[in-house]
Amino acid sequence: MQEPLLGAEGLDYDTFPEKPPPSPGERARVGALQNKRVFLATFAAVLGNFSFGYALVYTSPVIPALEHSSDPDLHLTKTQASWFGSVFTLGAAAGGLSAMVLNDLLGRKLSIMFSAIPSAAGYALMAGAHGLWMLLLGRTLTGFAGGLTAACIPVYVSEIAPAGVRGALGATPQLMAVFGSLSLYALGLLLPWRWLAVAGEGPVLVMVLLLSFMPNSPRFLLSRGRDEEALQALTWLRPADADVHWEFEQIQDNVRRQSSRVSWAEARDPHIYRPVLIALLMRFLQQLTGITPILVYLQPIFDSTAVLLPPKDDAAIVGAVRLLSVLIAAFTMDLAGRKVLLFVSATIMFAANLTLGLYVQFGPRPLAPNSTVSLETLSLAGTEQPPATPTSYLTLVPLLATMFFIMGYAMGWGPITWLLMSEILPLRARGVASGLCVLVSWLTAFVLTKSFLLVVKAFSLQVPFFFFAAICLVSLVFTGCCVPETKGRSLEQIESFFSRRRSFLH
Predict the structure, then answer these.
(1) pTM of whole model > 0.85?
(2) Alpha helix (H) ranges present in 106-243?
(3) Which end is more exposed in the chain, N or C (fewer Cβ atoms within 10 Å of the end residue's Cβ)?
C-alpha cells in the first residue's frame, strides 16, 4: 500500500533535510521588527487583494439602487442584475488564465502592477456608466484584475517571506480581501453608487505607487539569470544580521535544478503533477463548500428564512465575523499548523451547512419575506414549517449557523488554500499552475453562483446546504490523505518532500 502524503511532524518525519543551525527561518521568529521590510512589501502587494474584495461585493449596494433607477438605460431587470453580479467571476477566470503567462513572463511584482490597468479602467467605466454594457464591461475588467492578482500575490508573498512568518503573511491576502469587502459595505451607507466606483480607484493607485519601490521575487530574478539583482533583493528583504548568503545559495541551487520550464512529458513526473493536482483539488473543493453563493446571496437567504434580526443587520454581523476569523487564522497558522486548521475549518463548515439545511427543512417559515433583491425563486413549497414569531429565539439559528460557516471558512479553507497553493507548487510550474488554480476556482464559482437559484427553484433551499455539507466531509478526508504539513519549512524543503515521497496520487 502506497504511503499517504500526510506530512505529519515528528521523529519519523525525515522527508526534509535538516537545516543548519543559524537558518533565516529560525531567525525570523525572534521578532516582527526583523521582518519589517518583508511586511512592507507584503502590504504593498496585498492592496491588490483589498481591491479584489472591494470589487467582488460592489454589486451589493449597487444592484438595489439600479433596480429603482429612473434612468431607463440603467434600470436593471432581475436577469440583468444576476449577470451584473456574476460576470465578475468570468472576468476573474480570464485573469487567472492570463496569469499562467504573465506570472512567468513579467514576474510576480510586475504582473500585480499590471492588474492596475484593467482595474482602473473597470472602475472608470462603472463610475461613468450610461448603459448596461458599460456596467458589464467594467465589472468584467475589475474581475479580470482580481483573478490576476489572486494568482500572483500569494506566489509573490510566499517567495519573499521567511519560513517562520510565511503562514501569517500567507493569510494577509484573504484578510485584505475581507477588509476590502467590509470597506465597500461601510462606504455604501455613505456614497452614491457612482462614487463607490471612484473610491475604488484609490487603493489601486496606492498599490502601484508602493510596489514601484519594492523588489521583485529573488526566486523569479534567479530564474531569469539576474543573480546580482536577486541577491540585492534578498538582502533588502532580510534583517541585517540574517545569513543571506546561505539562503541565497539554497534558492540558487533549487533554481538551477529547475532552470527550464516544465514540458508536457515532464508534467507526468509525480513530483510535478502531485502538488499541482493537490492545489487544484483544494481550490475546487474550497468553492464547492458553498462560500461564493452564500456570500453573493447572503441577504436574500436571510430574507427567505425566518430570522430574528433584520437581514441587513445579519449580513453586516456575518461580515464582521469573517474579518475576525481571518485575523485568528493569521495569528495561529504558524503555531497550530496548516492541517490542524483545515480539519477544524471543514468540521465547523460541515456542522453549519447541515444546521442550515435542517433549519430550512424543519424550522419555522418567515412571516413576510421582503427584500429589494430577494431570491424570488426560493421556494419552501412542500414543507410544513410553522410560521415564526417575531420574538422566537429559534430564528437566531440561520444567523448563528452562517456566522459559524464563515468563521470556519475564514479560519482554514479560505486563507490556507491560497497559502498552500503558493507553497507546494514546484518553482518550474508555479506561475502557470497558480493561474490554472485560479481559473478552476472561478469557473467553479461561476457555475455554482448561476446554478444556485435553479437548484433552489427545483428542489428548495435546503438541498444546496446538504450538498455543501457533504463536500465538507470530502474535504476532511482529502486533508487527511493528501495535504502535507508545511509549517516552518522553506519552499526548497517542501519541494524536496514531493521529490522523495510517494502518495496515493502517484
Answers:
(1) no
(2) 108-114, 116-127, 132-160, 163-170, 172-188, 193-211, 218-223, 227-237
(3) N
